[in-house]
Design goal:
The structure is a homodimer of 498-residue chains.
Chain A (H helix, E strand, L loop, with lengths): L1 E3 L5 E3 L6 H20 L2 H17 L1 H12 L3 H24 L6 E3 L13 E7 L3 E4 L13 H9 L3 E4 L5 H17 L7 E4 L2 H9 L5 E5 L2 H13 L6 E4 L5 E4 L7 H13 L11 E5 L3 H14 L8 H16 L4 E4 L3 E2 L2 E2 L2 E6 H6 L1 H4 L7 E7 L2 H8 L5 E7 L5 H11 L2 E6 L38 E7 L20 E3 L2 E3 L2
Parallel strand pairs in A: 3-20, 5-6, 5-8, 6-7, 8-9, 10-11, 10-17, 11-16, 15-16, 17-18
Antiparallel strand pairs in A: 1-2, 3-4, 4-19, 12-15, 13-14, 20-21
C-alpha cells in the first residue's frame, strides 16, 4: 500500500492496507484521473516505455526476488520479465497509432433520412480509476506491472493494484519501480498505487471512485469479486479471467502420429508445473489409438522430475482436486504423481468420452497443476457429443489434418466455446500480439466479449463519448478537423488512414 | 409469442407466453444461431433490407395501429417508421463494409520478443441468441424492429423479442412482418420470435440458451433484469438503457440570449409530451438572468396545449414523480401543468443550485413527461459544484460561447458524466449515425462502454475468437489470406483498407 511520508514521496510496504490508507489511495487515484487521462497518447506512450526501461534495468534485482517467492526457475522468470516490458512497449505503439481512440466524425447533413444530421464526433475516453488484482502464477506478466496494469495505464486510467500474497516483496519492489518511473516521467501523483490484503481489495471494488476491475485467478475468487461489482449501487465492469479446462482433441488421422501428439501434450500440460490457465486438461484420442497414446505417455510422465509449485496454498488446492479425480470410479490412473519435497511429479489419468459425459460436473474441472486426463472416444459422434460438455474455455486445441472434414467441424464447434482455437499446436505460451485473444465465455472469464492479453485489452478501460455540434475549442484533439494526432478515423462512414 | 401451426408457419399472438412456448422459442433460436451467424455478412445485409422494405410497405397498416395504442400523432409515427427502416438499412451498410468484424491477422515471426509468434487471426463472432426488451415510448424505433433488434440481427444473433404491453397489436403485427420477411429471405426458422409477459421475459434472461440481453425502459425494470443476468450461474452481458435527467447549462454569455435559449429548452422538454429518455430535465441559468428566463418561459409553458401520454401507467408514474417534486419545499412551481382528459399540460419548476445540492436524492430524478426544472446558479463555482451532482447521464447540454472558457470546462466535466455532450443545441432528436453515442455511465445504462443507437450498437452482440495456426480450410472467410470479403483488416499491426 501507499503512504506519503513528509517528503511527499510515496513508499510501499507489504503490510495489509487499512481502510484509511485505502481511502487516501483512492482519493489520489481520483485526483490523478483527469490529468492522466488528458495526457496526449504519445505522452502516455513515453511513460509506459519509461516503466518498461526501469523494470528491465532492475532485472537482476527483481528476478531473484521472484525466484525466492514463486519457486519458478530463473530462465522462465527472465523470459517473463521480457514479456512484461515488451507488453508495455507494445501498448506504447498502440497509443501512437491511435486506432484505439475509435475516432468517428459525421458531418452535418441536411438530407439525412432521420432528420437533419448535426455535427457528431465520437471517441473513447478512459473510464477512470481501475482496481487490478494480481495473479500468483505469473509474478511479472499478470502481476503488478502485468497486462491489466499496462492496458489500463495505456487507456489513461490510474491503477490501484491489489498485490498477490504469493510474492509480497517482489510486488512491493515492482510497485516502487513502476510508481517511481511514472513520477519521474511526469505522471500525476496517484496514477499508480499498491494495496495489500483481501479486505482492501474488496473495499476497492465496492468504492464508487473505482470505475472498473481486472482480475486473474480462481473461479471462486473472480466470481465473488464480480458479484460485488455487479451488486454496487452503480455496477461497474469487472473483467475476471478465471482459467479453464482447455480441452484438446486429436482426430483419427492426427492420432496416427500418436507419439508426436503425445510428446507435445506432455510438454504442454507439465510446463511450469501445469500452473497455466491455458494448460490442456484433457486430450481426446480415438479409442483404437488409446493404447499407443498410453504407451507413449505413461513412461514419459513417470520419468518427469517433480517441480515445485508456486506456494503451499496452490499445492494444497491441486492435491485436493487431483485426489477427487483419482478416486473417482470413472477414472483410471495411468501414472500417479508423487508428493515430493521438491513438489509434485506429473499425473496422467484416463477415462472415456461416455463416462466424462455421465460425470461432467465431477470430471470437467480445472486442476491447476501437473495433471491431465486422456479421454478415449469411440467414433466421431461420440467425440462431437463430448464437445458439448464445454461452454466457456480460454482455449481449445485441435490436432487434425487440414483436409479432414472433422478438423473444420471441431474448430467451428469450439469457436463457439473458447476464446482461442489452436490447430496442431498447444495452447501454452500465450503470445502478446494484436490478434491474440485471451478470454472466453463464462466460466473462463466474466466478460467473454473482451481479452486480457494482446493489444485489444485496452478496450476494456474505455468508454465512448459523442460531442454534438461542439466548437473546435471544446473538442479533444482526436476529433478536431485537422486531425492533429494523425490517427486513423472514420469520417462520414469511411475509414480514413492518416 | 410464437407457435408453429401444422403447416409449419409461425403465428404470433398477444397472449402471455407460457413456459412451454418459451422453451420452444428458445430451442428454435438456439437451432438458428449457427446457420444465421454463419451467413455471409452481405447475405444478412439483404435480410435486413428485406425487413426494412416490408415494414415500409406496411406503413399504412402499422401507423394507425401505433396511433391507436400509443396516442402519438401520425406524423411523429411516420417519421419514426422511417427512422426504424433507415436503421436496418444502415446496419446493412455496416455489414457490407466489414470493419465490424474486427479482423486482425498476425503472421508468424520467429524473432518476436516473447518467443516465436505463431500465425494468429482474430475476429468477432456472434454471441448467440439475444433477448430484447421493447420500450413503450418508441413503438417502432425502440420496439419490435428497433435498434436492439437491428443490431443483434446484424451481428448474426437470433432475437427473442419481449414485447411491450403498451402496444400489443402493433407488436404482434410488426413481429409477423419481421419474421415473414426473414423467412422469405431464407433466414433459418427461429431467427426471430416474439414473447409476451414479464414472466416470459424473466425466464428468457435466466435461460442458459440466451447469451445477452438488450433493454430500454425504467431504472427499476432495467436494474431488476440486469441483476438476474448477473446472478445466473453463467452471467451474460445485459445492456439496459434506463434513461436519465439530462442536465443542460447556460453559461453567463449564452444566457444573454435568454429568449432563444428558453424557446429551445421549452421545445425540447415538451417534445412528444416529454416522453424521451433524453428530455432535458434541468436547465441551469445564471441567477441574474433567471428573471428573464422565467419571463420567457412561464407564459409560453402555460400556453402549451396538453398532449396525451403513451398510456395510463406512464401518466400515473409521471404524476407521482411530479407531485413529489412540486410539493418539495426546495422547489417553486412556475407553471403548474393540469391533468386534462387529453393528457397533462407542461409543468415548469424552479430551484437553486444550492438547494439542488442539498436535496440531490429527492430532486435529481428522471420525471418522464412534460416537466422540467429551471435552476439558478450564483456564479461559476456554484455551477461547477452542481455539475458534480451528475454521474451517469445519456446526455448533457451546454449553451455557451466557443471562446468562453467555461464552455470548454463544462464540456470536459460533462464528458466524464454523460454519453453525449450537446453544444448550443438540444438533446432530443437522437440521430442514427456512425458517431452517435446513446449510453452513459450508470444509472443511464448498465453498460456505459456501449451504445444502443448508432452503428457501434452492433459491438454489443459480438465476441472475439482467435485462430492459432489454423489451416485455410478451417478459417472463416474474414480471416483468409486473400480477404474474400474485401474488408478492412489489421495485418501485422497495420490497418489495411481493401
Amino acid at each position: 500500500m501507499t503512504t506519503s511520508d513528509h517528503s511527499g514521496e510515496i513508499s510501499m510496504t507489504t503490510a495489509d492496507t487499512t481502510p484509511e490508507e485505502l481511502d487516501r489511495v483512492l482519493a489520489a487515484a481520483t485526483a490523478a484521473a483527469r490529468p492522466f487521462g488528458e495526457l496526449r497518447p504519445a505522452r502516455r506512450a513515453e511513460l509506459l516505455r519509461r516503466v518498461a526501461d526501469e523494470l528491465d534495468a532492475a532485472g537482476d534485482e527483481l528476478v531473484p526476488l521472484a525466484q525466492a517467492e514463486s519457486h519458478l526457475p530463473e530462465p522462465r522468470l527472465r523470459g517473463e520479465l521480457v514479456r512484461t516490458t515488451f507488453q508495455l512497449r507494445l501498448f506504447s505503439e498502440v497509443l501512437e497509432e491511435g486506432s484505439y481512440l475509435g475516432a468517428v466524425l459525421d458531418s452535418p447533413r441536411e438530407d439525412w433520412p432521420t432528420g437533419a444530421r448535426p455535427d457528431l464526433r465520437r471517441m473513447l475516453l478512459p473510464l477512470g480509476p481501475v482496481v487490478v488484482f494480481a495473479a500468483s502464477n505469473f509474478p511479472f506478466a499478470f502481476s503488478v506491472a502485468g497486462g491489466d496494469t499496462a492496458s489500463a495505464l495505456a487507456a489513461g486510467c490510474p491503477v490501484v493494484l491489489k498485490t498477490h500474497p504469493g510474492h509480497p516483496e517482489l510486488s512491493r519492489r515492482t510497485g516502487e519501480i513502476v510508481a517511481d518511473a511514472l513520477r519521474a516521467g511526469g505522471a500525476p501523483e496517484g496514477t499508480f498505487a499498491l494495496i495489500n490484503g483481501d479486505e482492501a481489495g474488496r473495499g476497492a471494488v465496492q468504492d464508487p471512485r473505482i470505475r472498473a476491475g481486472g482480475f486473474t485467478g480462481s473461479l471462486r475468487g473472480g466470481r465473488a469479486l464480480f458479484d460485488l461489482a455487479c451488486a454496487r449501487q452503480d455496477p461497474i465492469p469487472f473483467y475476471a479471467e478465471m482459467g479453464s479446462v482447455n480441452p484438446s482433441f486429436a482426430t483419427p488421422r492426427a492420432a496416427e502420429q500418436a507419439a508426436d501428439v503425445a510428446a507435445g501434450y506432455l510438454g504442454s500440460f507439465t510446463l511450469g508445473a501445469g500452473q497455466f490457465c491455458v494448460k490442456p486438461g484433457l486430450l481426446f484420442v480415438p479409442e483404437d489409438r488409446a493404447g499407443e497414446f498410453e504407451k507413449a505417455l505413461v513412461d514419459a510422465v513417470t520419468a518427469r522430475e517433480p517441480a515445485p509449485m508456486l506456494n503451499d496454498r496452490i499445492e494444497t488446492g491441486f492435491w485436493q482436486v487431483l485426489d477427487r479425480l483419482t478416486e473417482h470410479p470413472a477414472v483410471q490412473v495411468l501414472a500417479r504423481g508423487e508428493r515430493t519435497a521438491s513438489g509434485p511429479s506429473p499425473t496422467l489419468l484416463r477415462t472415456t468420452a461416455a463416462r466424462l459425459r455421465e460425470h461432467r460436473d465431477e470430471l470437467v474441472e480445472e486442476c491447476f497443476g501437473p495433471a491431465s486426463i486422456l479421454v478415449s472416444y469411440t467414433d466421431e459422434q461420440d467425440l462431437l457429443a463430448a464437445v458439448e460438455l464445454f461452454r466457456g474455455e480460454l482455449t481449445a486445441t485441435v490436432h487434425g489434418e487440414a483436409d479432414e472434414p472433422l478438423t473444420a467441424r471441431l474448430c467451428t464447434e469450439l469457436a463457439e466455446r473458447a476464446g482461442r482455437v489452436v490447430c496442431n499446436a498447444w495452447p501454452t505460451g500465450v503470445s502478446v500480439t494484436h490478434a491474440m485473444q485471451h478470454g472466453g465465455p463464462y466460466p473462463a472469464t466474466t466478460a467473454g466479449t473482451t481479452t486480457s492479453v494482446g493489444t485489444a485489452a485496452i478496450e476494456r478501460f474505455l468508454r465512448p463519448v459523442c460531442y454534438q455540434n461542439a466548437p473546435a475549442e471544446v473538442l479533444p484533439e482526436a476529433l478536431r478537423d485537422d486531425n492533429p494526432l494523425g490517427i486513423p478515423r472514420r469520417v462520414d462512414g469511411q475509414l480514413v488512414l492518416p
